[in-house]
Design goal:
- Helix 7 crosses helix 8.
- The longest helix is centred in the middle third of the chain and has 26 residues.
- This protein has 9 helices and no strands.
- By secondary structure, it is mainly α.
- It is elongated and about 60 Å long.
């Protein structure tokens, strides 16, 4: 008879993403995840088979979570340039950090998940910027600026104003 899981996968995945963010890819091992979750290393090995399998499952779940957030933001943000800012503001706390991106880009399947997420964000921005090729270009620029903020602000980078970009692109 199989034992009941004491900690759901989503809690394990949060711990893995936290370890990735705090210490990079080398910070994640069965031992470090076991310490963070209180599960035995053997339980983690049984559940995920390999360390890479465990990291892959966590990152796949993270991209699914991020994609769901984009869909939710798309339901509530108005269809206007000002709505583009609202859309990004709703996503402000859910962009992937540098460690998540670095771990993602090493795997083609995860890169595809990231590409789908990026396309969803850009599509949501383009729709709010009026649609068409000009709006798609504006959305690409806004996405790059928004992600640049996420990647560089924690290290002391200058946080530019996205609303100034939206105004410029909306003209």
């Amino acid at each position: 008879m199989p034992r009941t899981k004491l900690i759901p996968d989503d809690q394990i995945f949060k711990a893995i993403c936290h370890l990735l963010t705090a210490g990079g890819d080398k910070a994640v091992s069965f031992a470090s995840v076991a310490r963070a979750t209180g599960l035995a290393q053997a339980t983690l090995a049984q559940r995920f088979r390999t360390r890479d399998g465990m990291v892959f499952a966590a990152l796949e779940a993270e991209w699914a979570r991020l994609y769901a957030r984009v869909l939710a933001a798309g339901q509530s943000a108005p269809q206007s340039p000002k709505g583009a800012l609202s859309f990004l503001k709703e996503l402000d706390d859910c962009g992937p950090d540098a460690a998540i991106l670095a771990a993602t880009f090493r795997d083609a399947r995860l890169r595809e998940r990231a590409t789908v997420w990026r396309a969803a964000v850009e599509s949501g921005l383009a729709a709010r910027m009026g649609g068409g090729p000009k709006a798609a270009d504006a959305a690409s620029g806004l996405f790059a600026a928004w992600q640049g903020q996420h990647l560089w602000t924690p290290s002391g980078g200058n946080r530019g104003k996205l609303k100034d970009l939206v105004k410029r692109f909306a003209q």
